[in-house]
Amino acid sequence: MFFDPETWVAIAFVILMVVFGYLGVFKKAMVALDHRADRIKAELDDATRLKQEAAKVLADYKARTATAEREAADIIANAKSEAERIATEAKAKVEDFVARRTKTAESKIALAEAQALADVRAAAAEAAVQAASTILSQSVKGQVADDLLAKGITEVRQKLN
Fold first, then answer.
1. Could you tell me if residue 36 is inside a domain?
2. Within a domain: residue 99?
3. Does residue 152 fall inside a structural domain?
4. 160, 121 contact by CB (below 8 A)
């Protein structure tokens, strides 16, 4: 048994373990493992806290996004209603403008017609006076002709104008 190499390895192992126990290597290893476990636990707690904070931030951004989308929809709806109102007002203004222009044009046309009619009457009266004067001057002579001619011209002018 003492000549077996496995026996000496076992004896050396036991002696090494006793020396380690005497020097406190096991306690130091346990303390180091405990510190490492504490550090890992702290990191896990920190990671959990960060995950919760990230979830809160994500929820906050989702709420802000939803609010922004609602506000954008409200703005779009208001813009559409404002555009429709402006279009309706513009249409009413254009229709009013066209009606006023049409009325103005009709009154100008009526005035032009009245003026043209007056011009035609005046021209007709003048032509009638000229014709009457020519006919009367050729057929009637003397003072009677002059009196009749003056009286006739005056009456024609009064009636035609």
1. yes
2. yes
3. no
4. yes
Report the C-alpha gap between 82 and 58 in whole angstroms.
35
Integer Cα distance of 117 and 3 in angstroms: 155
Residue 134, helix vs strand vs coil: helix
Q: Token digits for 114? A: 């009245």
Domain that holds residue 58: 5-114
CB atoms within 10 A of CB 129: 18
Instruction: Render each residue's pLDDT in the chain as its tens digit; 161 residues.
Output: 678 888 989 999 999 989 988 888 888 888 999 999 999 999 999 999 999 999 999 999 999 999 999 999 999 999 999 999 999 999 999 999 999 999 999 999 999 999 998 888 888 878 877 777 777 667 666 676 677 777 777 877 776 66
Its pTM stands at: 0.43
Q: What angle do CA 41, 42, 46 make, to 5 degrees?
A: 115
- Longest CA pairwise span in the chain (Å): 190
Q: How many domains does the chain have?
A: 1
Q: Which long-range contacts (CB under 8 A, 24 or more apart) does 151-158 make?
A: 153/129, 156/125, 156/128, 156/129, 156/132, 157/125, 157/129
